[in-house]
Structure formats: structure tokens, C-alpha cells
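Bench log, entry 3. Co-assembly request; chain sequences pasted below exactly as received.
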Amino acid sequence: MFKIEVYTKINFRNSYAEHILFDINTTGLALIDKLYSSYLYAIDGNLTIRQINIIATELLIDKITEGYYCKNNNLTENEFSFNKTDHSIFCIEIWYKNGVTDTVAETVTKAVKDLGIMNKISVKRGYKYYLYSHRQILQETVKIIVSTCLCNVLIQDYIIKQHK
Amino acid sequence: MINTKVKVLILRVAGTNCEYETKFAFELCGAHVDCLHINKLIVTKTKMFEYDILVLPGGFSYGDDISSGKVLANELKNILGDQIRKFALSGKPIIGICNGFQVLVKMGLLPYSDRCDQVSTLYYNDSGQFECRWIYLRIEQESNCIWTKNLPNIITLPVAHGEGKFIPINIQLIDDLNINHQVVLRYSSQDGNIPDYPLNPNGSISRIAGICNKQGNVFGLMPHPERYVLALQHPVRNNVKEEYGYGKIVFQNAVNFCK
Amino acid sequence: MIKKNIVTTIDLLNLSNDELVNFSQTNVLSLSLEEMQAIQKHFKQLNRNPTDIELETIAQTWSEHCKHKTLTGIVEYTELIPRNNSNSHYHTTKFTYNNLLKETIFKAAIELNKQWCLSIFNDNAGIIEFDSNYGVAFKVETHNHPSALEPYGGASTGIGGVIRDILGVGLGAKPLANTDVLCFGSPHAEALSIGMHSPKRIMKGVISGIRDYGNRMGIPTVNGAVYFNDGYIANPLVYCGCMGIIPKNKIYKKVCPGDLILLIGGKTGRDGIHGATFSSIQLDQNTDINAVQIGNPIIEKKILDTMLKARDLNLYSSVTDCGAGGLSSAIGELGEHIGAIVNLDTIPLKYSGLKPWEIWISEAQERMVLVVPEKNKNKIKKIFEEEDVDAVFIGMFKQDKKLTLTYDGEIIADLDMMFLHNGIPKPKISASYQIKLDTIQPSLEMTNVEIIQTVQLLLSNINCCSREWLVHQYDYEVQGHTIIKPLTIGKNFKLCGHSDATVIFPYTIVKETKKCIVLSCGLSPQYGYNDVYHMAASSIEESLRNAVAVGGNINKMALLDNFCWGNPNNCNTLGSLVRATKACYDMSKQFSVPFISGKDSLNNEYFINNKQYSIPPALLISAMGIIDDVNNTVTMSLKQHGNKLFLLGLTRNELGGSMLFNVRKLSGGIVPRVYPKESKIIMQKLYEAMSKKLIKSCHDCAEGGLLISLIEMTFSSQHLGVNVDIDAIGTENNSMTASEILFSESNGRFIVEVDYNNELQFKNIFKDIIHCYEIGYINNKHSIIIESKKHKISINENVTGLFKIWQNAISW
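Structure output for the full assembly:
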């Protein structure tokens, strides 16, 4: 399985992440200074690295504003900047549970065929968030943030990783 | 009887949803219009050339999943790319409205129809939200776009999109577009000045709302001219005396061009 | 005879009463003991036990959601009416309804007998005549519990479901507009308990869900309301409506033995298993994941594109949507009078591992069932295949009056249609309602400054402030038909006010027409605390008034009712429902406006710490009307400096439940009443005046009262304002204070702008109307100027500041 993470390049505005940041900070649970968000695609099938790169560059990213990371079956984080003033850094992945309708994943399956890649594949979609704060934030607090702002546990699973 | 009407092809795919009002707009201008599903064009690849004008209408092609217009842009590029490029280079009018504009930009038919390479994009609105509202547009009168002749300097149209922020690959592109007079429409304030949000509904670079190729036959825009062909459709109806809206002029220009 | 691993035979015949109840509960069948006993008795007669799929089919068909047992059941109603002006003395009246709906709301429609009503209460939606060739259909549904659990998915499948109702009315109507009316807890409140979402999160999710589904379908979301009250904190109300247009010759359905059953659209998964029965259960924290549904609007859009093509080629003879109860309800209904056989192996699945009963009752979204005469088999399949829509023949209709299901070559269900549809016992339920008197509040005086402060409080109140942030997210312009838009904007495209109603002009469908359709709504839970009768009556009058304000013709208007109530097994809850239906009957008759369709959502209750809470009862009334000439429609923005302002209707001392009392934390007061005789003639005259183009702008007086309505008119008018003389306003008696006059929420009132050139003609039309008062004129200062010599009031306030307060109160 390949996991592709699509992120907005640093010099472009990610207004979606801005909204989420605003939502979290208005809950009063914690003060987050920075939030990055990216889309995740887990693609399973008998694909080569070259095919995966075609899928990522030709389909999943916007060439002008977005970039991607790709790891083979790797659930760990990718490079992101550490700032000396950041006290807490969390990385959260959210995936739909099995059986939950995921329209984007269905579209990706169709669109991969349009690229001429006819292998049978299965696709899952997820979200990834990086939270930065210069205050000390407990993992327990992040759990509450995730379940009240980022994830509906009825239909999605989440994984939290603390980096600092 | 020989049908002498200008023939318009409106391309339909899963998620197209502005075809009825676009069809009406062209018919109002005296054209004959067919709304054809993409599968029909894929089966008969020469079908497209039976028409004088090609329209990529508004909507949410394939749900705008992944990013808006992307899946259709790839499908067109990979399966009908040669035909569409040929159509464009032959000088026949092509218009992409809203989702159609996103498709044209992402398949690279705009701004350079000969290269077919993506050099700009339409990205998430700065507001982070879908924006359905009426806006003012300044028409760049020096542009050689065949679709925007005979329009006054300032017009009004509605927009409705979540991803309409025009972003070039680099700043050089904006200069080139300006030099070539390829910028056709810019968001404007009521009196023609630089607008703030919400009159610039998405934060477009250089306030760009619509561009054309160098020849002026391929035109893409975020606003919806097909939603303002009747004067009644305008939200401020004080002293409406005219019968038609500005949108009608856009479609009439293309139909007249083909006559 | 039956393979044990795929279908289970339930040993029902030997169960005791307790075991029957227990079985129903553990299997989420939501059947009562009497119902379980009826099933037991039926199978005793057949001398066999039912299979799981048979029992599930019966449970779906008999569910509250599908059968509306309460509204069609036998109700013994007791009403306690106060005597001698005292809340402690009563006299009692009793009445038994054999079918509450048929004897109230439906009865009014039958008695009114409007020839232009083409289909009422018997199809997926009500249909009225548009012109000689077309009808328009309108339906409103609720999706409350799913939206509480997964707001985005719940609301999007709510709107998706009601669109399918319109696709499934007659042989299919083309949707023209969506509506949404939403009730949430205060957006500043927190979630009540773990596992529940905060009202703000519910609200944002619901709005995104409606936005994404409606926008992707290309159906403008044009009319609605948002109401906040902490009574909805854990149980939001999500009303979704859809209006569509249908050729008159496509209204009638026909199903014949031998016709094939064609399933089109989405694949079947475990989505929404027990959705129909689940909707009759109160919410708690242990709710099943399968009840959650998520929609795919693009599949539904493909159905819309292709199905209407097949309709116009006359390739099928009937259609219905797969809604609550899934295929079980859809095919059960279509084959009710003849019988049907379905092969469950043929149904396309999302994934393997589904049991036959799960396939049969799954509420997977975006599916429709068509009835296809054998001869059209190949032609119709081709239409769907050409546009990549899954279409599979899954069975056929028969003459044996039975429902037969097969799986893997075996018969796994063999049910008598007669029993399935009519075997449900009709228990008697009792209901009682105690009417409370309301009394006038002590005289309420305010100084100039206090009035302005109150206005600012009202404008920033969550129930009065701008909904702009929400409306702009909905594509209300798609299809180009939206002639009067949900927001009336000023020339600079920055100012705006909420339009009273929306007008849809279907020029792309009906060529050369001048006719158009007005949509509006009325919802006033705040008036229900003393007597739900007045709440219901106010909602009805409000919906009509809103429609009339933009040019609607009261003589060609129809209504939909949507009740959201608590548990009907509670005698008082059901009593208030009965009381509200009485108001519906009375108002429908007196305004001569029929109800054409409706839906109830009961059991809107939830548990917190084992304590049961019920929502404040909410009756949504949606109105639809036909206007003869689109050119005569009127917006609320002021048009011309110097034009005169008139107030139509009498201002009474009615502040009970008002916005003023809400923000000032006052209680008591008289809740606004409806005076149909007075109101109806004003509405008729107003249509006449609008038809002669004598009215330049018009706005109704609603929440917040006259002053707020005047301010709302200036919001959408660049540079213009109003001068109003309070002493010129007609009041019920001379003792009303200025603030009572300005903030009273009396029904039946309109503010109209009349061109000075047309004044004589206008006055001539209204010469017999007592309650027509010239109250002021339009200034060019963008200011609200209010004067009263009698009350010594003099207010002069610029509108720009007020607009900012109103616009910025909530914005997410």
C-alpha cells in the first residue's frame, strides 16, 4: 500500500486550515498557534513507484499550489519544520471507517483508469493535521480537540502522534 | 431544409448542472444547441467537429472530488485532447464557465491553447467558503476576446464557486497575460476601482475573473453569464427597462462570430 | 427448506408476551406488543414461523416512519378549556378521531376542493397546477436524528432524500429548488454529554451537508430559516424541502402484473440499516454506526439526467424512491395491490457479506425503483448504460397479491400483501391538552435611547441577525430561475436584507411562460408555550404573508405541514399535536388554502443522565403559490425618495413570545393571534395592487415587529431611509405605548411603498380596508426617523451602524 500526502505549498494560503484553526481556538480548549492540513490517499493495488508518482502528479495534486509526499506502507509523519519556540507539536491522521461511503475515493478509482492505469486498486481517503503551540498541551486535550473539531468517531478513526 | 443556424455543443458529464440555462442563452441568440454526454464524443471522436461552438458549462464535474475540474480535465486531455486542441486552434469559439473554466485551466487549454500545459490554477477562495453572490466586473476593452465585444466598461454578473482564486505559476505569467491582452475580466468595485472582499469574492491574483487565449476564441471565466440573460434576473430591479442582461451579449458575440 | 447460514427462521410462535417485546427491542424492530402479537397470530394461522427477512419487512412497513401510525391512528382527545378567565377552572371537551390526519388537515383540502390541486396526500409529494401543461410538486422532509449523529452526512442525505421524493412523484418531476429550515441549540452552548456534538458543530456540519449536496445537484437552495433554542441542543431539526416541475401527463402511475422491476443508481451496502425504525427511537449514546448514511450527490445527478430522459420516452410506467425501509418499502408499496417477486441475488452490492435481510431493508442512498413494461426492457437499459448509471432488473410484479423474495435459488420470504399493508392493529391512543390563558403585560414604556438600545439588541440577537454568511454558501442562482432571491441586495452589492419569500421563474423549462412559483415558510415555536393553536395558526399565516409580500396570489396557494414533536405515547405531547392539527384545519378553511402534503417526525426526544427531554414542538408550514406574471413580483428594497409608506393591518398589543420579550427576559403577554377574515382580504387586495404595478416595495412585519421590519427594508436600499409617524399607525386601542406599537408582533401586517403618482389608484383598491394607514415616506438619508407627538418620541438613527451590528452578529 502507498500512502500519499498532498499538502498546500508553504507560500500559498490554505483557507481550509485557517477555518479549522479558528474553530479549535474558539472552543477554548487550547491555544494552537499554527495548523497545517493535508489530504491523505491510501492506494492499494499492484502498482509501481512510477505509477504512484504519475497518480500523484497528474491527478492528486494541483501542480501550481500543492506538493506531495509518498511513503510505501509507512504510517509515520513526514518532514515538517520544528521551531524552537514550539512547545507542543502533534500530528493527527483521520481515516474513514470501513463501509462508510467515501465519494472521493470512488472518484479517484475512476480517474486512475483515465490515466491509463488499469490495475485493480482500492483507495481510502484521510486527512492529516499538524498542530503547533508554544504552550504545553496535553495529549488528553488534543484527544478532545480531535473528537470535537476534526473527527466524528462514529464514522472515522484517528491516530495522534506527539512529536514534542 | 438546410439548417443554417450556428451549432453549439454543450459538453455534459456526471455533475454538469448549468446546461439548461446555457442552452437557453444560446437559443435566445438564435443558435441550435445540443447537450451531449462525454461518452458520445468518446465513441465518435469526430462528432465535435460538426459544431461551431464548444461549451464547457458550470457544475461539479465528477463531484469536483480531489480538486475542482481536475478529473474532467484529465479525462479530456487524455482521451479527447487532440480533438479539443484542434478545435481551439481552428479558431472556433470555446467557452468554459465556472467549472468549465477550471477544466480549461487545469488541462492547459488556457491561457496557451497551443501548449496545453497547466501554468495556472483556480484554488480555494480566500474566504475558505463557497461564495454565491453578485459582483461587478471590469471589461478589459483592449482584449481581443471575441466573447466580450460590445460590453460596457463595468458589468454585473453572479459568481458561485468554492475554488475560483486565479493563481499563476509565476508572476511573469501575469505580465505576459497583460502584454498579450489575455486578461478579459477583473473583479471590480461599483465605480471601477479595486474591490475588497466580498466584491473580489475569492482573492484572485491581479483580480482576474476571466482570461482568453492569444487568438481570443477560447474564453474561460468564473462568473456565470448564462444566469443573467434576462433583465429580470438582476437582483436590484429598480427601473429595469431593458429586456436582456449582460450575459446575453456574451453569447450573442460568439454566435455572430460564427455566422 | 431454508439455508440456515443465510436466513434464520425465528421461533416466534412460542414466544411469551415479554419475550415478544424483548425480541422487538433487541432487534431494533420498534414494534409494540400489540403489533408483535398480530404478527404472531398471523403466522399461527399459517402454521409456520417467519424468517428474519419476513419479520424485518413487516417491521419496516409498519414503522412510524413509513406508516405514520400516530397521525392516521385512533386518538381519543380531551381538551381542557379555561373558564371565567382563570387558569384554574376548566370545562372539558372530548372527541375521538378515527384518523387524525384525514379528519383535520386532509379534510380541509377535500372540503375546499380546489380544481387546481392535481395530487394531494397520495404520492411522494403534493402537486398543483402550474399552467395548462405543467404541474409543480413540493415536499418537505425531516432528517433530525441522523443529523444529530453525523451532521454532514445526515443533512446531505436529508436533502438527497427529499430530492428523490420529487424525482419519484408521478413519473418524475424535475427539481427546481430546495428549501431548508433548521433548528439548533444556541451556538454558544457546549455539547451536553460525551458522544454528542456541540450545537455549533451540528450547525456547521448540517449547513455544509445541505450546501454540498444541493450545489452539486445543481438545485438552488432558495428558501429557509434558522431558529435557535436550547430545547434543540441535542436534537436538532433539519427540514429539507424540494420543489419540482412535471408535465401534467406524467402525473399518474401505473403498475401491471408482468411489469419488470428496475433498480437504478447506487449500490447497496449496510448504510442506514434500521433507519426507518431507528427514527422512531429516542436518541442515546449507544447508537448504531449502520444508522449513519452518507450521500453521493453525483450518482443522484446522473439518475436525474437519465431518468427524465427515459420518462420523456415513456419507457416506464411508475417509479418510487428508495427512502426509509429501502427496497422493502419501495417495492412493497408499488406491488401492494398485485404482488411482486424479487431476486435478491441480482442486487449490486458495495461489498460482500451482506445478509439477504440487510440487502432488502438497507437504506443505501441514491437508488430509485422503476416499473418497466417488458417491451421496453432493452431500450431503457441502454439509456442508463450510456451515461454510466447502474441499472439492474431485480424482479417483476405478479397477480398473486404476495410478496415473494428469493435468494440463492430459494424462497426466503412469502408474505401476504394484504396482511403486510393492512394487518397492523390500530390501537387507541389518548391525548389531552390543557389550554392556558395568556394575559397582557404591564404597560411597557421606553425612552428614545432605550428604543435604540433595544433595536441594537434585537438586531444582534441570534434569532434576528443576518443569515448572510450561510446563504452565500448555497448556490441559490443555479438554473437561472431565481428571480426573487433569498437575499435582497442593495446596488453596491454589499447591503442586503432577507427576502420574505423566493420566486422561481422556470423559463428554461416552460418556454415563453410568464408564470412563476413563490416559495415561503413559517415557523414559530416561540409562540407555542401557552397554546400551540396560536403557534400553528401564526406559522400558517406567516407563510402565506411571506408569499404575498413578494407578489404571491393567496387564491392560488397550497401548504405543506411538517410536525416535529416529542413522544406521542405521552398523552400531553400527543394532545398538543392534536390541538395544532385543529388550527391547521381552521386556518386552511378560513384562508381557503389547502394542504397538499405533509410529514410528521415524532419521538424527537433525548436522554441525558437518564432524564428524558422533549423538544419544543415545531410545526413548519411551507407555502407554494403560482403567480401569473413574473413582472409583477415585488422586492423589499426601498425604491424611490419621496414615495409614501403605508401599513396594512392592525397593530395589537401582542408581545407574548416576542423577540422583545426574549432579549429583555420578560415573560407573559398575549401571543399573536391570527384574524383570517381581516388578513385574507388584505392579501387579496395586495395581489390586485401588485398586479397593477402600484406597489414599489413590500415587506411583512414579523419577528421583532414593525420597527425591525422597517430597518430591514432600509438594509437593502443604498442611500434610502424612512420617516415614520407612530401616531399614524392603527392600533387596537389608544392605550398602547410607543414601544408596544413598535415591537408588537401582530400577524397580518405589511409595509408597502407606493409611488406618489399611483397613490389615488392604490387608495381606491384599499378604500374598503379599514386597516390601511399612511405612516410615512422614504427619505434619501439612509436613516430611520421615527416621530410621535403623542408619545414624545423622536428617533433619528443612521442605518449603516445598525447594518454592521446585524451583519456581524454571527459569522462563521
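The CA atoms of residues 656 and 671 of chain C lie 4 Å apart. Chain C touches chain B through 45 residues (CB under 8 Å).
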